[in-house]
Amino acid sequence: MKYDVANRRIWFKGEILNVNDAKINVLAPTSQFGLNVFEGIPCYWNDDEKQLYAFRLEDHYARLIRSLKLIQIKAPYTVDEMKKALIDTVKANEYDENLSVRQTIFVDGFGSWGSEEPADMFVAPIPRGRTSAEYNKKGLNCCVTSWQRIDDTTLSPRIKCGANYINSRMGQREALRNGYDTCIFLNAKGKVSEGPGSCFFMIKGGKLVTPQLTDSVLESITRDTVITLAKESGIEVVERSIDRTELYTADEAFLCGSAMEITPVYSVDKYSITNNVGEITGILHKKYLDAVLGTDEQHKAWVTAVY
Ligand SMILES: Cc1ncc(COP(=O)(O)O)c(C=O)c1O
């Protein structure tokens, strides 16, 4: 049976429940301090094959394990158990549409921000149309936010934990207040880092340029996918620090991520870049969609069939 989103089934502490019955006490460190790590795992419905494909599942779990290690929470489940939980949850909802699946390990109980346990997990599928507005636009008018991106000396953006998203929120709220779709953060050195929930790429002189992983960015799976697909297409990829003024003179630019896919940046701080999908951005987006839909034979290993 299919459920409306307000009654969708989620996996919670080993059971599949109506989302309204999955309850966490208000004093749990996850609710008090955002003490959790998570993944947003994209799943794409391939209508020709009547199959739902989860994208780069192993890589998402590898990053989740790295986040757990860095924040010192013991993994309460094995990767196989996590994978089974995702598959069982999607099947319980009989989803045949594109999803972002939130898989979160959280610290429960009555401890505080220093607690390591008890840790548990929930798995919640989010139909794609229901994610934040900036993830569903054709192109983005961005600002450079006045808030600095968190960095490895304070709160590492390498850790995908709930608390990090308060920094994202500050930038995103500022962007919306000032009439932009979203923002781009600079890091502590004043170099371009990333969007609030996405990575940044620009095209200059035919080369694809993106900040290095040490420029205060998440180790994004889409970033890695885009780099791989670009290299295979004969596009030169350069990972280097980017100055703010380079944003304003890019030939093309895009933000990318599991939720964002590849979305063109139309302008930054009202400096126009393009008013449509740029040529290289368009090529990469098409290749990305082929990969996530499981139609790219070369990258079939990136997808896991749910049904
Ligand atoms: C801050 C941030 N950067 C980048 C990304 C893109 O990461 P991924 O491609 O693994 O979804 C995300 C999305 O999860 C994010 O939240």
From TrEMBL:
GO terms for biological process: isoleucine biosynthetic process; L-leucine biosynthetic process; L-valine biosynthetic process. One of its GO terms (molecular function) is L-valine-2-oxoglutarate transaminase activity. It holds the Pfam family Aminotran_4. Pathway: Amino-acid biosynthesis; L-isoleucine biosynthesis; L-isoleucine from 2-oxobutanoate: step 4/4; Amino-acid biosynthesis; L-valine biosynthesis; L-valine from pyruvate: step 4/4; Amino-acid biosynthesis; L-leucine biosynthesis; L-leucine from 3-methyl-2-oxobutanoate: step 4/4. InterPro entries: Aminotrans_IV (IPR001544), Aminotransferase-like (IPR036038), B_amino_transI (IPR005785), BCAT-like_C (IPR043132), BCAT-like_N (IPR043131), Class-IV_PLP-Dep_Aminotrnsfr (IPR050571). Keywords: Amino-acid biosynthesis, Aminotransferase, Branched-chain amino acid biosynthesis, Pyridoxal phosphate, Transferase. It catalyses: L-isoleucine + 2-oxoglutarate = (S)-3-methyl-2-oxopentanoate + L-glutamate; L-leucine + 2-oxoglutarate = 4-methyl-2-oxopentanoate + L-glutamate; L-valine + 2-oxoglutarate = 3-methyl-2-oxobutanoate + L-glutamate. SUPFAM superfamilies: D-aminoacid aminotransferase-like PLP-dependent enzymes (SSF56752). Gene3D superfamilies: 3.30.470.10, D-amino Acid Aminotransferase, subunit A, domain 2. Transmembrane segments: none annotated. Its EC number is 2.6.1.42. Its cofactor is pyridoxal 5'-phosphate. Acts on leucine, isoleucine and valine. Belongs to the class-IV pyridoxal-phosphate-dependent aminotransferase family. This is Branched-chain-amino-acid aminotransferase. The gene is ilvE.
